[in-house]
């Protein structure tokens, strides 16, 4: 019995000794490992913390500071749909990629941005004559009887519809068109061509093209203004528009009037000093204080009235007529709304007045 107890005690001593050795060996190995890999271990812990933080941020909606500072161009470049508010207060969801746009009467601005519409505005079978070379092959939509029906417009499958004036959106048209594609409405894009071009560029992801076009036009207008000022001085320029319903003197707030009186800085008659336009008749004609006159036969439909007035003795007695300073303008682009038209008008005015 005593021998059995001794054997048991000896066995336990061996086991305990072996266990102690194992613990010591493991401790030594762990110590070596800690000294050799402490940087890696710390790095792994930090990486884990970073990853956890990133996951947490992602769950909260990502990097908020980046989202809050993104510009419309950056959002478009990222291929994301965005929401804008048009000039009538409609919220419009602009697709990330607009490849088919319908913007009647804004074809000039579209072409300046390097964009061709899916269809173009027309009066009967005639579109904007000065743009037809670039719009060759683009279907015409007749607006002479009103805006196209939703069914007719739907066949072109536009991604975006842009209406250049609020009158186009009246009588439920906006609601009908908005069901076909996102529809953006200007109050009057022709009232400020430069501003509307910049807006259109933003809508189509073409802001750089819009900026370049505007910079080029402003430089052209500035150079022309300098040339004209040396010849015209403080003399005045008038624009008379002959149309079937009457004859009017154009002011300086829109279309060719804006180009001549604001962009080129040429003086205007007192008859339209604070007006968009003024009616002109043979009785009023003697009051026209202008040394240079440009006449426009609106869409070639004012021929009869133009002949009646220009063949009268009152007309022939005008100083501008006597001095040979009356010029017939091309109605195709003098009544156009866009920088392509404006550039052509600038060239016409410089050539007519300075001979250059």
From TrEMBL:
Domain Fe/B12 periplasmic-binding stretches: 98-356
Pfam families in UniProt: Peripla_BP_2
GO CC, alphabetical: outer membrane-bounded periplasmic space
Entry annotated with the keyword Signal: yes
Segments forming a coiled coil: 207-234
UniProt KW keywords: Coiled coil, Signal, Transport
GO biological process, one term: iron coordination entity transport
Signal sequence, renumbered to the chain: 1-31
Main location: other
Ranges for region Disordered: 36-78
Polar residues bias: start-end ranges: 43-56
Transmembrane segments: none
Subcellular location: Cell envelope
Family classification: Belongs to the bacterial solute-binding protein 8 family.
Annotated protein name in UniProt: Periplasmic binding protein
